[in-house]
Amino acid sequence: MSDTIAMSAVARSDFGKGAARRLRRTGLVPAVIYGSGTDPIHVAIDGHDLAQALKKPRVVLSIALDGNDYVCAPRDVQRDVVRQVLEHVDLVVIGRAEARARAAMADAIRTAEAAAEEAGVDVAAAIEAIEAAVAAGEDPQAAAAAAVARSVEEQAALVESQAAEAAAEAEAGSAEAGAVGAGLEAALAADENA
Q: Could you list the residue range(s) of the whole structural domain that residue 45 is in?
């Protein structure tokens, strides 16, 4: 699993707002590891490394703690509303199969983002289409290719309809200008005759 990011954590025994603030001042983020039938494990993880890892789509973390490795996925990420710094992270232990599925999805998203940017289409729409297709049971790579192709078609249809609207407005504008010009000529001719 090349997309798994290895991190180390330290166990924590202090809880509450004051303890969490002290941890954050030292650059650590409080976190909880839970799942797979174990009791929740309260840890502290380096804030910078964790923030960088969470920027990746469908990230899988390998947390080293007291000689054990926990393969986890972020479940709930809490950030400060104003400063957007990490305040707390819930990590759920996942199995190898789910880690592989998350890695495949991350690869598909990266592929779709690159293809969407190259094609000049909306990246967010392509990613939403991929996630919907994968939720319906499609292969992530096939879903990525189909989502980008669909976005390119929608973009082309939008450009075509905008061009047709612009042409219709230009034609209506020229017809209106012609009618105004004819009315002006008639008024000038009437003035000359008078």
A: 4-94
DSSP notation for the chain: -TTEEEEEEEE----SHHHHHHHHHTTEEEEEEEETTEEEEEEEEEHHHHHHHTTSTT-EEEEEETTEEEEEEEEEEEE-TTT--EEEEEEEE--HHHHHHHHHHHHHHHHHHHHHHHHT--HHHHHHHHHHHHHTT--HHHHHHHHHHHHHHHHHHHHHHHHHHHHHHHHHHHHHHHHHHHHHHHHHHHHHH-
Q: What's the pLDDT tens digit per position in 158-193?
A: 778 888 887 777 777 666 655 555 555 666 666 666
As to burial, measured by CB atoms within 10 angstroms (0-12 exposed, 13-18 middle, 19+ buried), residue 43 is buried
Of 94, 120, 143, the residue that ends a domain is 94
Q: What is the number of domains present in the chain?
A: 2
Chain mean position to CA 184: 58
72 and 120 share a domain? no
Among all chains, which residue has been given the structure tokens 């034609």? 171
Last residue of a domain, one of 94, 122, 157: 94
Structure pTM? 0.55
Best CA proximity match to 125, nearest among 161, 163, 155:
155
